[in-house]
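Hi V.,

You were right to ask for the full record rather than a summary. Here it is.
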Amino acid sequence: MGPYLIGCTLLVLAGVMKAARPDDTARALVRLMPTRFSALSQVRRMRTTVRIAATLEAGLGVVAAAVPRSASAALVAASYVVFAGVVAYARSRDGALASCGCFGTPDTPATLVHVVVDLALAITATLVATAAPTDGTIITALAHQPFDGVPLLVVSAVGAWLTYLTLTMLAALQAVRRTVGVAGGAVTHR
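Predicted structure:
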């Protein structure tokens, strides 16, 4: 349940950030659009699409965390499979320094770690979908945990924060490392 809550938290965080700042995500997606989708290939139109999709993403995260049932967990899993595909596609199109715009900022590079994290969260959500009860809420699920689930919530919050840092800051550091080499303690530019 902990990794599932991490995935739901990241959906809410990324959705809110993209809805508030859709431009960078819109630009990242426009670069990835095939030319046959010319109606969406304008940043202005894509901005609206990003805002709507981001709001749905955040809403899914809230509902899936509050009501962890098969249908909501399956939608979370499907979301992360799609995200993994988009990040992998961005890497194949624009190389290692491609931005996926996942958190509404231009400095979120599309990395292999990002793809792996997305797939791991998809697998976790799939496991929850197969074992989810048909009734109850997160409150009922937490009631069956030690100390009424408070440790699970704390660990999940810390895990979400660390995963966010992995997808953003670590990815940005990896991008810088690709552009600036370190040899024998001295910084050299490639």
